[in-house]
Structure formats: C-alpha cells, structure tokens
From TrEMBL:
GO terms for molecular function: L-phosphoserine phosphatase activity; magnesium ion binding. It holds the Pfam family HAD. GO terms for cellular component: cytoplasm. It comes from the Bacteria. The chain crosses the membrane at residues 31-51. This is Phosphoserine phosphatase. One of its GO terms (biological process) is L-serine biosynthetic process. InterPro entries: HAD-like_SerB, HAD-like_sf, HAD_sf. Coiled coil: none annotated. Keywords: Membrane, Transmembrane, Transmembrane helix.
Length: 210
C-alpha cells in the first residue's frame, strides 16, 4: 500500500509570523541593517508599494544581511532563534496536524521561501524533510562564509513545484496533502489531492477572490 505525502509551507502556515523578516532582524548586526537600509531602501519601498514581488525582494535582502557572514556565527544565531522564538509562534493547529501525519506514517516535507540556517535546525529537531531557499557558502582563509546568494533560487510560487518535483515522484503516494497561506503557495496546493489554504479546504483550480 502506498503512503501519503504532506507538504507544509512554513511562514504563516506552521507559524503565525513572518520568520524571514524576523530572522534577518535578529541575526544581522545593527550597523549592517542601517547600511543595508541606505543601500536598498528603493527595493523596500517598491515592495511595500506592491511594485516588487516578495520573491524578488527576499534575495536582495538576504544578500545585504548575510554577504560574507561567518557560517558558524550565523548558525549560532539561528540556533538561538529556534530555541527562544520559534516555540512562541508555531501554531497549535499546525503542531497537531504535523503530529497527525506523523501518526499516519506519512512523509512530511516543509516547503518554504524562508532561509536555511534556522529552518534546517528546526526541521532536524522535528524530524521533517526540508525544501527551502538555501544560502550558499564559500570557503576562504577566514573559514566558511555565507555568500548571501541562494543556491537554487527563491523557493516560492511555481518554484515550489519545481523543488518538489526534483525531490519526489508524486505518483509514488496514495494521497498528497498540501498546506499554505498565500498566493505564493497556490501552485503547490494545486498538486495536492487535499489542499488547505489558511487551514480551510482549498478547491483546486480556484484562485483567491474568485
């Protein structure tokens, strides 16, 4: 008998907060935040005005926040973020649904546009698989550093489908479940036999507002 597959978005679905932004503010020195704001304020303004999509904004913000940062230091901050902040913002409903899929023996994958340093730690602790926006690393005389760039792009929208299809064969599963909360998750929800948008049943092929 085939098993089931459960695909979970992270920000706004498993959590009730925007962890991408929180972690950038948590892990970035104040001087770098100030300098970054000076450098990319037009990008932030364009995003706030709806002229620039989040999928294009996030990589720019990540580049400013994590370029040439020590992997060891950023990962230590990621550990602290996971320990002290994430338990406060994980939705009880999400925790129960994750437990349900575990009890059924389903394969569970978190599919997120948020960043690898803290998501890897949290998913490892929760014994969950992860597909996400991964920060690339480089090695130099001063040790491993994050480049600030993404290894394989921003894991959102149609890219979520590409990440999933590279990792799994959906035909191997009896049923596919998917959980999301924004338009960026709709392509992933369209893959599922049972899909949920903001924890309500989602009808495949139905766009928000229609």
């Amino acid at each position: 008998m085939k098993s089931n597959l459960a695909l979970f978005d992270f920000d706004g679905t498993i959590t009730d907060a925007d962890t991408f932004t929180e972690f950038v503010l948590f892990a970035t020195p104040k001087w770098r935040l100030a300098l970054g704001l000076v450098l990319i304020w037009p990008v932030i303004l364009a995003f706030k005005l709806g002229w620039l999509p989040a999928a294009r904004t996030r990589p720019i913000v990540a580049k400013v926040a994590f370029w040439h940062r020590s992997v060891a230091k950023v990962n230590a901050q990621a550990q602290a973020y996971v320990e002290h902040r994430l338990p406060q913002i994980v939705r009880p409903q999400a925790a129960r649904r994750l437990d349900y899929h575990r009890s059924c023996g389903d394969r569970i994958i978190v599919v997120s546009a948020s960043l690898s340093p803290y998501l890897e730690i949290w998913c490892d602790e929760q014994q969950l698989e992860l597909l996400c926006s991964r920060l690339s690393k480089s090695k130099g005389q001063s040790g491993s550093r994050y480049s600030g760039s993404y290894e394989t792009g921003d894991c959102s929208g149609q890219r979520k489908v590409e990440f999933i299809n590279c990792a799994v064969n959906l035909d191997d599963y009896e049923q596919v479940f998917a959980y999301g909360d924004t338009d960026e998750d709709l392509p992933m929800l369209e893959l599922a036999d049972q899909a949920y948008l903001r924890w309500q049943p989602y009808q495949r092929g139905k766009k928000e507002g229609s």
